[in-house]
Amino acid sequence: MNLFSFEYPFIILLLAPIIYCMYKCREQMKPRFFVHLHFLSAKKSFLKLEWLLKIAIFVLLCIALASPIVVDKINPSNRDGKDIVLAIDGSGSMNASGFDVEKEMSKEERLSRFEIVKIIATDFIKKRESDNVGVVLYGDFAFIASPITYEKEIVSEMLGYLSHGMAGQNTAIGEGIAMSVRAFKHSKAKTKIIILLTDGEHNSGDISPKEATSLAKDENIKIYTIGMGNKGEPDEALLRKIADESGGEFFITESAKELKKVYDKIDEMESSKIKSKEYLLKDFYYWVALLFALGILLYLLFREVRR
How far apart are CA 307 and CA 294, in angstroms? Predict the structure, then answer.
């Protein structure tokens, strides 16, 4: 986002005495009397213009000293973070409720597991200030819901449009991993991460989790696996094996609170070095004001020489 500002805005205060002089400090000319006043009409007109041009020069110099700038808070040259793909289970079982214990106890409207994942994942995406993030949804098959991009608002918006069942009712974990690997096709990041979440067992798809994990290893992609739900629902042995073989880590969660802690832990474990820094790209435009001031000054000098 580009913002217009001044590097030294306090110098603009110098304009106050200039504006005051526009009304109070005009040149006092001694009265002279001539019979033929029409001889002085043109000169009098130019003297008024000359006075305004002098004021304009001072105003432009003040603006130049204040150093007008255009600030780009999202500097592409600083986007050297990590590429992350969130592979989210969108099978029929993700429609189950009761995962958010706090809302259940407070008798508020229960959210499905899928809705809870979207809320927590959106919060995670927004925290990854220096990284590119993408989303893959899988069920019977897998598809890239949002390609890997730096535009977090777009990823969050696309995530909001997703619903369980869009990719089928079953759970093709192998397809989810394989499609996530494909999402890194144009990635140039040194660190590539897949965060795979599921509440079930692999029971669909043409690609086995073992084959898909091998593809990820060949591309140096680390996989964090998250099993959510009650004990025995997710295939803990499979998820642990996927994480271990790819250099990632396995987590198990039984509530929304625990799931949020897992995403926070991954965020901390995979923090980017430049995450806490703010980089600004500044374009300086003081030369524009100086150019105009110089043009006016040359014009006044030219008129003075012509006199």
Answer: 20
Asked if 177 and 196 touch (Cβ cutoff 8 Å), the reply is yes
Both 192 and 222 in one domain: the answer is yes
pLDDT of residue 47: 58
At 75 the pLDDT is 47
Cα distance between residue 285 and residue 268, in whole Å = 40
Structural domains of the chain, count: 2
pTM score, two decimals? Answer: 0.64
Residues 27 and 101 in one domain: no
Percent of the chain with pLDDT over 70: 81
With residue 192 as reference, give the H or E element that holds it. strand 192-198
Find the CATH number of the domain harbouring 223.
3.40.50.410
Q: Is residue 275 part of a domain?
A: no
Lowest mean pLDDT among 115-124, 131-140, 283-292: 283-292
Alpha-carbon distance of 229 to 241, in angstroms, equals 19
Reading the block at residue 190, the tokens are 């040194």
Show contacts of 151-159: CB within 8 Å, 24+ apart.
152/125, 152/126, 152/128, 155/125, 156/122, 156/125, 156/126, 159/118, 159/121, 159/122, 159/125, 159/135
Instruction: Specify if 145 maps to a domain.
Output: yes
Cα(138)–Cα(148) distance, integer angstroms: 16
Rounded Cα gap, residues 229 and 243, in angstroms: 18
**Quick one: pLDDT at residue 275?**
44
Q: Are residues 107 and 171 in the same domain?
A: yes
Q: What are phi and psi of 134, to 5 degrees?
A: -135, 165
pLDDT bracket for residue 142 (50, 70, 90): very high
On whether both 214 and 154 belong to a single domain, the answer is yes
| One domain for residues 113 and 165 | yes
- Supply the range of the domain harboring residue 67: 2-72+280-306
